[in-house]
Amino acid sequence: MTEENYNYRTSQALLRNQFPGKGKWEIPIIPRFEPYPGDFDDLLLIGFDKTHLEDQNHLDRMVHFFLYDYRFERVWKSPDSDIEKLSRYRAAFSPDFSMYLEMAPVMQLYNVFRNRWCGAYWASKGIRVIPTVNWGDESTFDFCFEGIERGSTVAVSTYMASEHGNRRDQKDWFMAGYNEMLRRIEPEKIICYNTPFSEMQGDIVYVDYERSSWKYMSYERSYASEDLESFKIGGQTPFVHDIISSFIDVSLVKGGGSAYGGQWKPNPNKPNDAIYLGPPNTIKRVFIPTQKGGYWAIAKYDTNGRAVLIRHETIHAPNGIHSNPHDHIVEWFPPTFYPKPGPPINYFDGNIPEFKYYGRKGENLMNLQYNAENYSFKTISDFKTCMRQGGEVVFSWEGREYGIWAEGEYIRITCSDDAEKTRLFRTSDAALEYMVGGDRLRDVITQVTVCDRTI
Q: Are the beta carbons of 194 and 167 closer than 8 angstroms?
């Protein structure tokens, strides 16, 4: 055996066996967290993807890994690369490698091992570590709580199990694992990222999801390079190679439960959602209320009752490139089957194709009313989801009206009385740096008056 082969075969990068474990799988044990006075007072978190060595303003936060796995795979592959950075923060949660129900059982076991190994390794380097607990179905209960000392402080998140936007709740799955965790670990405290369910027992430290987001962080990040340039109305969208990650909302936490998050369902408080589902093989005409009155929309439904084509009888956005009417082809993305309308198909030449009926037709006024509260964006993540799913939005701020909508791989923003303020952006984060009057859109998006919103 060569020295090179020997060094590889005996390296910890391969073996990962330096920490003692218990039970059949010998999963490494994360030492019990010893709290300092004030550790849990008004606690805020910071996502691992937002940490950096130059940060001086958020070192009193704990670092969480309720992110998609690709955002932190490095802590397993190169465990020494982030030791210095993590040691600067108040504490770090062990990395929340996914435990989706759809995963092969061996992958679920592997991810529990990685969670605990990283936590044990960080603790050996002097970092204060709190174990993150996650689970799949009952078949994972034999190993998913291993590596955590009885009476430890632990961290969980209810975000992906909670009903929000168009996501169905997965509370039953979450509570089954949570109650088993209480029985097996008897945690001293449970840090809960996002609102706890009323059924949750134990000494819970609630961490507000929104207050731990970018909106409440006190340093700036420049997105100027992602502002493509100004475009005159009628200009062509430039062809720019881009990657899909630009439209992935990486600020959204993930967790266990289904990898798909539950089937999409219409939100009864959003009138535009009502048009996406209808009687199979029909066409329906629906009146959509807006702040200025409203407009008619027509939808064509397939054999499953899902809209495949929607026509809006309005120009929507101020200074926008929309004809009246304009169409959107709607795609449905499995397995949740959420709808995503494509870019507007315009008919500026007046050559408007007929909406051909292939079943019974009907007109539906429905009992829909404009309500500014229902149209408003509750969080920055709500706005990002709207853009990612092809939304069109009209909002007003300080006497001016703006239009913002997804246009293929880009986001376009226009202003009612200033065509020179039209901009294209590659990502929703870049669009949030757009100046509306004297304010960044990021700072006021939850305060603007949303006049019309399609998603």
A: no
